[in-house]
């Protein structure tokens, strides 16, 4: 989750306090949809739509994930599966498993590289939702696993992004970044203690960190992502000839 890139779905009860499933961060989810004409008048919405189209058309991270989901029987359609909305100030995007829709926070995503990263992060959640029986609502370990994979594979923890956050490290810094961001994501959408989030992440970390599908590697840069995309396409061609 990039400052709250999260799946509003998952939550579990904590005492008698009712969990809102993270939807408080995405207030437009509960509003009546506005007409295209009304939405088109807002600059944020137009800019969000243009940046989304650029990501889907040119970003190798997103293109690989879209192809992988199509191969898994979950074809993604722009108008159906993406929604540019206003969100809480602490979040950039989320995956709503109830509607199989990715929410893009048009008031918080201001530049193309950020859009690329948010779309990739949320498409990893969507890919996990497509390929596995993820219990977003009740099983915090399932959420932890998907958040680990999203932080690991989306570019959230690249060296340049970490430097921009004024975070520096040597050996094991990537793993530390992935763990920290997964914990933050869980705490943003689940009313659980930090100890519970940390325990869930630590219990599944090794298995989920090493689950590199559909990339086959950790893409540390756009060049890595392009190579992974080519390898994925070649893998498809090889399998088709078997």
From TrEMBL:
An annotated Gene Ontology molecular function: metal ion binding
InterPro entries (alphabetical): Peptidase_M76_ATP23
GO biological process: mitochondrial protein processing; mitochondrial proton-transporting ATP synthase complex assembly
First-level EC class: hydrolase
Domain of life according to the entry: Eukaryota
Signal peptide: none
Keyword Amino-acid biosynthesis attributed: no
Keyword line: Hydrolase, Metal-binding, Metalloprotease, Protease
Enzyme Commission numbers on file: 3.4.24.-
Cellular component, GO, one term: mitochondrion
Family as reported in the entry's similarity comment: Belongs to the peptidase M76 family.
PANTHER family linked to this entry: MITOCHONDRIAL INNER MEMBRANE PROTEASE, MITOCHONDRIAL INNER MEMBRANE PROTEASE ATP23 HOMOLOG
Protein name, as recorded: Mitochondrial inner membrane protease ATP23
Protein's organism: Nyctiprogne leucopyga
